[in-house]
Design goal:
Elements lengths: L1 H17 L2 H7 L7 H9 L7 H31 L18 H28 L18 H8 L1 H33 L6 H13 L2 H11 L11 H24 L5 H8 L4 H30 L4 H4 L7 H10 L3 H30 L1
């Protein structure tokens, strides 16, 4: 189990290094700086801005992330070397914990409450308060739905929801289309450079969102097509950054489809596009849909890249939440956070149902 544990630990380390939303809310008020908050402070949060220093911080965090992504790839290759392919008679081996099962279940239950249930309940309580204060027995008398009425009645919130919905639907669709095409080329064909193609697709996975956003921000300043300071540059950032997630979802599906089906279609006179559309796409649909839902969920709550790339009128929900927090509107932040959390939970539950259906 050591390679798998090390791979998971390395992946979590990379995700922690690139995190910006949590340090921005918790660390910055306590004057605790990390790489991502320094990038934000130098690029956007100070006057005059120092883009050169922000770029230096971005390169530093990128180098750290690349080193650990390389280690992750090494660890996962070791995991795959221990894997075996079994037939239908294979059944997963269950470990009997004996008397320890109650302790293990209790620890898991406590962690679930502390890490998921309790924070959500506090968020829900804050969303029902007219102003933030320490909860007391008198708190129940002050509960109100005014923060949710703000969400319903405010055009700024409507615009942010519309922008996030557009990014989720269009971005996830483009991402899964590119992922399906790339997966087919790297898994099913023997064209030269397919390994290089897969490597290029996975490179953005190592890019922290802040570093990638800075690179795109400066790359498209003088671009002939005017996408700078529009929602389209955010869309490009989302697709670029999260394409590896879609590729993972599609690749895990396409490798389960035997090549004989495509060969039979070709023998019957069908061309490449007909085979791809009538054979592969229907069989890959559950995996594609599950990947699409996961990406849409990520896009709805994404923050670290969009905070650098948004412009007035194109801000998605992530930056709007942060600016409401900076304005001290804790109740409105809580209400918007509850709505976003419910949407994401519904999408994730639907994706899990699709995954179970695919497994059958």
């Amino acid at each position: 189990m050591r390679p798998a544990i090390l791979a998971a630990a390395t992946l979590n380390f990379v995700r922690a290094v690139e995190s910006f939303d949590t340090p921005a809310i918790i660390a910055l008020p306590a004057r605790i700086e990390v790489f991502t908050t320094k990038i934000w402070r130098e690029a956007l949060g100070s006057f005059p801005t120092n883009h050169n220093l922000a770029a230096s911080y971005g390169v530093g965090i990128l180098v750290i992330a690349l080193i650990f992504v390389y280690l992750y790839r090494r660890f996962t290759s070791k995991v795959e070397s221990f894997s075996t392919v079994t037939g239908k008679a294979f059944r997963p081996h269950q470990i009997d914990l004996g008397k320890w099962r109650y302790l293990a279940s209790g620890v898991a239950f406590v962690l679930l409450i502390l890490m998921v249930v309790l924070p959500f309940l506090i968020l829900l309580l804050v969303s029902l308060l007219p102003y933030y204060h320490v909860p007391t027995w008198e708190t129940w008398k002050n509960l109100t739905l005014s923060n949710y009425l703000y969400i319903i009645e405010t055009p700024r919130v409507h615009r942010a929801f519309a922008n996030s919905l557009f990014l989720a639907i269009v971005g996830a669709s483009i991402c899964m289309f590119l992922a399906a095409l790339t997966s087919y080329l790297t898994v099913r064909t023997k064209i030269a450079g397919r390994g290089l193609l897969e490597g290029l697709v996975f490179i953005p996975w190592a890019f922290p969102g802040t570093a990638l956003a800075l690179g795109l921000l400066w790359a498209y300043v003088d671009f002939p097509i005017p996408i700078y300071a529009t929602i389209w540059i955010i869309l490009i950032a989302y697709v670029t950054r999260f394409l590896p997630y879609g590729l993972r979802a599609v690749t895990s599906t396409i490798i389960q489809i035997h090549k004989e089906l495509e060969e039979a279609s070709t023998a019957c006179g069908a061309g490449f596009f007909a085979t791809f559309r009538r054979i592969l796409i229907p069989l890959m649909r559950p995996g594609i849909m599950a990947g699409w839902i996961i990406l849409a969920t990520i896009y709805v709550r994404e923050f670290s890249a969009s905070i650098f790339l948004y412009s007035p009128g194109s801000e998605p929900l992530g930056p709007l939440l942060y600016f409401l927090y900076l304005d001290g509107m804790r109740g409105r932040v809580g209400a918007l956070g509850v709505v976003i959390s419910i949407i994401c939970v519904i999408l994730i539950a639907f994706a899990q149902r699709l995954s179970r259906w695919e497994a059958r």
